[in-house]
Amino acid sequence: MKALVFHKPKHVSVDTVDDPVIQEPTDAIVRVTSTAICGSDLHIYNGMIPQPHDLILGHEFMGIVEEVGTGVTKLKRGDRVIVPFPIACGHCHFCDMDLPTHCENSNPEMYGPQGEIIKMKGAGAALYGYTDLYGAVSGGQAEYARIQYADYNPRVVPELLSDEQILFLTDIFPTGWAACEWAEVSNGDVVVVFGCGPVGIMAQKAAWLHGAKRVIGVDRLPYRLEMAQRAANSEVINAEDGDVAEIVREMTGGYGADVCIDAVGMEAHRTTLQKAANVLQAEKGSMSVLKDCFDTVRRGGRVSVVGVYGSPYDNYPLYQWFEKSIRLMGGQAWVQRWLDDLIKLVAEGKVALDDIITHKVPLSEAAGMYDVFNKKEDGCVKVVLKP
Ligand code: NAD
Ligand code: ZN
Ligand code: ZN
C-alpha cells in the first residue's frame, strides 16, 4: 500500500510499504477514506519530538472496516468508522476511570528525559503515528491502518454525514472540547484562546457551546485570525499588535479573562526561535504561551493547555500561578470520554467542523502538503488527504 512515511526531520515521502495485518484478535483493519495533517505532526516533522526510525504518520483518520480479528464483536466488515487518536484498551485501571490517554496496556513503556524506562503503572497511551515515545504505532496517513482494541475505540458513524463533516471528531474537536471541559467554561465566561490553528478554532467553537459570553482568538497570522472570525465567530487579537494581556484587560474592565486556553504549545518556541535564533534554552520557557495565559487570565481564573509541550523540563510561571490562584489543567485529550456526545452534536447540526478545511488533496501529494502546512503558506489551515 501507499503511506506517508517520516524518515528524518523535514523528510517525509509517500512510499510503498507492507499492508497492515491483524496481529491480535482485538484488531481490525480499516481502509482509510480520509485523513488529516495535524499541528502535532509538525512537532515530529520539525524534529521537536525526536523519532529515530521510519514511521507512518497520521492520527486523524477514518474509513471502512476491511477485516476484523476473531475477538471483535462490535464491528464488522463494511462499517464506516472514525478512529480516536489515543489507543485505549477500555478495561484497565485508567480506562475504568475514563482516562483513555493514560491507558496502561496500549503503551507499556514510558521513557524519561534520558531515554530511561520509567517503572510506573500507566505509561501514557499509545497514539497512532506518533513516535516511539507513544508506542511506535503505524499511523493513518495511509491506504490501510491496523486498529487496536477495535471494540472500544472506533465509532460507527451516520452515513448521512460526509467524511469532512466528521473527520475532526478523531482529534481536534474533542481536543478543543477537552480544553473547555478542563477549564470548566460555563455561562458568561470570557474565554481567550491562544492559537487560531485548527485546534484553537475548535476550542473557540467548543467555548461557545459551553456557554461563553465572549470568545477571543489570538494568533500572529492575519489569515488565521480571519478564519477564526469566520468559522468560530470570535473576536480576535493579533499577538503582534502589543501585549495581549494588556489588550484583554482593556476589553474586560481591567480584570482579564475568566479562562485562557493554550492551543499553541511548543509552536510558540519555534516561532520565537525563528525571530531570535540565539535565544537561550533557559529563556524559551519564559516565552511560552503558557506564560501569556497566566498573564492574561484574571485572578482565580482557569487555564487549560492542549498545545503540546515536549521538553522534559521547562520554565513554569510559578509566581503568577501562586499569586493569582490559577487553576491549571492540560494533557492529551480524553477523546473517547466525550466522543459519543460530540458525534450527536455534529449530527444534530449544533456545530460544523468542516469549515476550516483549506486543502483537500490525494494522499500522493501529502509530502508537499506537510511543507505548505508547516510554512503556513497558501492560506493553509487544515489539510485533508484522500488515499
Ligand atoms: P498549528 O501549528 O496549525 O497552529 C498553531 C497556531 O499557533 C498557528 O496559527 C500559529 O500562528 C499560532 N501561534 C504561534 N505562536 C503563537 C503565539 N506566541 N501566540 C499566539 N499564537 C501563536 O497547530 P494545530 O493543529 O492548531 O495544533 C495546535 C497545538 O495543539 C499543537 O501543539 C498540537 O500538537 C496540539 N494538539 C494537542 C492535542 C491534545 O490532545 N492535547 C491534540 C491535537 C493537537
Ligand atoms: Zn492531531
Ligand atoms: Zn486501558
Automatic annotation (TrEMBL):
InterPro entries referenced in this protein's UniProt entry, alphabetically: ADH-like_C, ADH-like_N, ADH_Zn_CS, GroES-like_sf, NAD(P)-bd_dom_sf
Residue span, Alcohol dehydrogenase-like C-terminal domain: 198-283
Keywords, sorted A to Z: Metal-binding, Oxidoreductase, Zinc
Entry annotated with the keyword Zinc: yes
Domain Alcohol dehydrogenase-like N-terminal: 25-148
Cofactor section: Zn(2+)
CDD domains: FDH_like_1
GO MF, one example: oxidoreductase activity
Family: Belongs to the zinc-containing alcohol dehydrogenase family.
PANTHER family per UniProt: DEHYDROGENASE, ZINC-CONTAINING, PUTATIVE (AFU_ORTHOLOGUE AFUA_2G02810)-RELATED, ZINC-TYPE ALCOHOL DEHYDROGENASE-LIKE
Record protein name field: Glutathione-dependent formaldehyde dehydrogenase
The species this protein was found in: Chitinophaga agrisoli
